[in-house]
Amino acid sequence: MTQSIVRYTLRGLAAGALLLAQLPAAAQARREYLLTNDWKFAKGDVPGAAQPDFQDAKWQTVSIPHDWAIYGPFSSTNDLQKVKIEQNNEAQATTKAGRTGGLPFIGTGWYRRPLAVPGFGPGKRAVLVFDGAMSDAHVFINGKEVGRWPYGYNTFHFDITPFLQASGPNTLAVRLENQPEASRWYPGAGLYRNVHLLVTDDVHIPVWGTYLTTPEISASAATVKLKTKVEMPGGKAAGLRLETEIRDAAGKVIAKASTPLPAGAQEFEQNLTVPKPRLWSPETPVLYSASSKLFAGDVLKDEYTTPFGIRSFKFESGKGFSLNGQPRKFRGVCNHHDLGPLGAAVNTAALRRQLTLLKDLGADAIRTTHNMPAPELVQLCDEMGFMVIVESFDEWKKAKVKNGYSQYFDQWAEKDLVNMVHRDRNHPSVVLWSIGNEVPDQWAPGGVAIAKQLQDIVHREDPTRPVTAGMDQFDAAVGNGFAALLDVPGFNYKPHRYPEAHAKLPQGMLMGSETASTVSSRGVYKFPVEKGKDKKYPDNQSSSYDVEYCNWSQTPDEEFAAQDDLSYTMGEFVWTGFDYLGEPTPYDEKWPSHSSYFGIMDLAGIPKDRFYLYRSRWNTAAPTLHLLPHWTWPGREGQTTPVFCYTSYPEAELFVNGKSQGRQRKATTGTNLQARYRLMWNEVKYAPGSIKVVAYDAQGKAVATEEIKTAGKPHHIKLTADRTKLTADGQDLAFVTARVEDAQGNLCPDAGNELEFAVSGAGRFRAVANGDATNLQLFHEPHMKAFQGMLVALVQTTDKAGPVQLKATGKGLKEATVQLKSESAAKPR
Ligand code: GAL
């Protein structure tokens, strides 16, 4: 929770008294504890597991975030689904083996831990906040059920005050259950996000108790309107006052207000002025914070911090989207929540690495498909500069999967939307709320009324942001009023129908809420190079020439052209930024495929060729010049082997072994859309040696070159860490890319050597991934085959500082080591 004032990691009950003694002497009005360690976990339903005297000594000790299923093993029988996927235009039901990742997430799991509640007693309150629990959480304190929350992606909180024994001991137990056929992708399993314990006075600011907006912004000043709820026993308390200070990014106080609570009110309203505001944008993610102190007379009752940014945006008919008055189009990606080899277990370093890669891509927006994101992601988007569509649901009343959200919709949809909006409505990064993705209610009777009901709920909770939804059923949604109702119409895979949508809809603008769904496997190239849909090969891989897609989707170029040619389009959200577990289209029916092929980056986060196609268009700060395929094709001598160049430059000349293959220039018009966005030499004959491009700028000046050489035999391993300085907090990660290279340092592009990893010093081996959607090796074991010459190993810190070393070995290869440094975590304020 970003609002917390003090954060501690709370270890078990036995340490409770000790822990109290370690707390700062000054009285704290509010304390927040992250319940990370000392959890006991058991898979299966265990009678009596909620009871305080239950013996859990034999259970596994885990720390959370924890995904119980990511440790495998993979099996085609895990959540085997025999289904007809209607939204994929399937005519009959077939067996889908890896649809949800082939991992053992189905069933029940229990978590237990002793719960020390420091400072708890008369006049205090304690609240548990679950950032997400997969799924159908039942939470117990001392054997009594405190509450339930079915939807695994949402954040929820329970007041546990009446359930606690002030003198202790107290026991927290959580029962989770995942049903089969409940998802279209890998959901993860367990307490996969953080759990927080908040201890406050009984006169306090509740969870998500502030709502901060910036209704007026000019160059000289911005108005900050801060509404702060207060809860008090019996709804009454005398002499309450809220003192708020606004700080700039450097921590300097730039505005102040002190406001008494009007008689009978339950909410403060403060209007403050920030002089000469620095505006938040993806390029300038400037943050401020509002720190509030709640007093009863002279007694400090609570403290609450609301980080925020100052920015304005508009979605306007005929003009499209603008941020801070500047028109722009979304350069967005859709992402599922899993973090590849970490599964669903949230990790800030892993999220930050994803966003770092997306920054280099030139992306400026993320759609959190098809559910509420981890709070850490939204916070990072504020800090690093990404605009976010926070999405809620993949289905409403009408089901896509047998046991999906539709069973909860009537009872829970409003509660889920309210929590979503309340949690995230102070974030400057969030610019749109999405009420759903490709819901079958688009065409079902009553669907339009549901859309209105959901949109109204969101408007009620946050009138400052518009509502969208991802629509795939074009004729139904445009014909029945569904699309016309939404504040912002979002279309999935419909660039060819944008003109029609624009003509028929009243909004005067639209966006590509989901685009492309091009499939490719990193470093794999198929011949002949032919554009086509639903292509399948015996090795369960897709071609990295980026010409293969699904029967409902396109190559990137179709969407690019629509975005470039149609002024009312507001940008796109590509499916997907990263490969994810589950949905292995086009191999849904062909085990062992169990992760996606859609990503611009693979499951290990390694860029595919497509990364450079998007980068050449989106990253306007740095040039892109990328050649494909690799140039090591023994046996293809003399055969046609097309060469593509993805570049931000308008023109380039290709040389094969020094011989010019001619100069190519990007087309500016024409029906061959690929020719507008890629330079392609389609008739090149393979000969070992090298391919080289020389790029020319708009003035015709040769400005950059790129060369790929034919590789020799695998010779050594090369390791490169994304970061070498880590934090000794037991969570931080380094992502180390391993390449199998020949003696000259060329990537061996089809090397599949098994690599072994050993970590020494103040770190531990965490996981490994190679991006091969068919690989059944387990992520947490310290060895894996390279895929197309590469993989990524994850090294995690412990809570001890010191040097860390990762060593990689492989049969017949010269080994490599990389040195990392884990440094003490900064003390909590
Ligand atoms: C869309 C859907 C996504 C994913 C994608 C694959 O229709 O919204 O969740 O299934 O297709 O192309």
UniProtKB/TrEMBL annotation:
Domain Glycoside hydrolase family: 717-819
Residue ranges of domain Glycosyl hydrolases family 2 sugar binding in the record: 38-198
Annotated Glycoside hydrolase family 2 catalytic domain residues: 319-485
Matching InterPro entries: Beta-gal/glucu_dom_sf, DUF4982, Galactose-bd-like_sf, GalB-like, GH, GH2_Domain-Containing, Glyco_hydro2_dom5, Glyco_hydro_2
Glycoside hydrolase family 2 immunoglobulin-like beta-sandwich domain location: 211-311
Superkingdom of the organism of origin: Bacteria
Keyword Signal: yes
Pfam families given in the database record: DUF4982, Glyco_hydro2_C5, Glyco_hydro_2, Glyco_hydro_2_C, Glyco_hydro_2_N
Signal peptide (residue range): 1-27
Assigned keywords, A-Z: Glycosidase, Hydrolase, Signal
Record-linked Gene3D superfamilies: Galactose-binding domain-like, Glycosidases, Immunoglobulins
Residues in DUF4982 domain copies: 638-704
Family: Belongs to the glycosyl hydrolase 2 family.
Name of the protein this chain belongs to: DUF4982 domain-containing protein
Species name: Hymenobacter lucidus
